[in-house]
Amino acid sequence: MARGAMKHVVVKGDLEEATIRPASLLSELRQLSIEDARRYFADASALEESDCPACQSASRTPAFERDGFAFSACADCGSVYANPRPTAAALTDYYASSRAARFRTERFVAETAEARRTEIISSHANWLGRIYDETGNRLATGYADVGTTNPAVFDEIRRLDLFAPLCAIEPAAGVVARCRDLGIDVAEEGEALGVVTAFETLEHQHAPDSLLRAAHRSLAPGGLLFFTTRTISGFDLQTLWGSAPYIYVPEHLNLLSIDGIRRLLERCGFEAIEISTPGRLDVELVLHAIEADPSIRLTGFVDTLLRHRDHRAHQDFQAFLQKHRLSSHLRVAALKKESHS
After folding, report:
1. In this predicted structure, what is the pLDDT of residue 21?
2. What is the CATH number of the domain that holds 209?
3. Could you tell me the residue range of the domain that residue 73 belongs to?
């Protein structure tokens, strides 16, 4: 498919942040994450300098600092990333044993599972099923989800009646048993798969290209990769920048730009089929942030839009952000190239 014909979509319907991220749970997860990050990564030897995780450029400028961690902005592709960042070994230890990691799977995911299934996961499943029907290798029916935190994804995939077998690649420690109870294979990597997904996973990878290269190896020729992540190109992050209260290490090591995502896909052997930003929460997130922190200053236009216009204007503006790839919720569908060195 030619680059100029790349798809992008607009998703209709309201979504409130509290539905999928209840304030009390989100606040506790954030606080635990900040405290555990200080505990696990206080030693300077657990941090290392990094070039841009999207385009590998060494050219960068300081972006902002959050909770003692510095973020850099890539001068080439505009991605923002934690730098220096925890080593891969330190991150493995954190996700295996930290209080925040346990809280995420045992409380946050468990208590929001049904809402997220209704509002997000079922939509993801229908999205990938449609593109698989249109573009995928129908002889390759294996499916794998990378970094699974919510096993409900497999229930939704099964409903499509397109994929078998189903596999969880390196799922969160707290959901391994649940995956096996559902009859899902658990593995470190897949083989000759038709589809690999990585939902809300790329942003906390030490090296996003390692995830994409592993997906490339796991896919059959003509296999498809689907992922979602936050992009720094989106309205709420561009507006709030270092004041965004929901950005913290190590949950958000990589806030890649759309340009950076394109470059990352290319160098990891994928052709983008769809790059969309169907987010429905950018305006609400900024409104919540300025209500909680009156010191946040907005530009004249944004201030007028958010403080002096009604809900209908906010809805229209959110639809505009979706249409023009300006929301921070990014979703990507990509095809494995036939040949890649």
Report:
1. 65
2. 3.40.50.150
3. 3-278+328-336
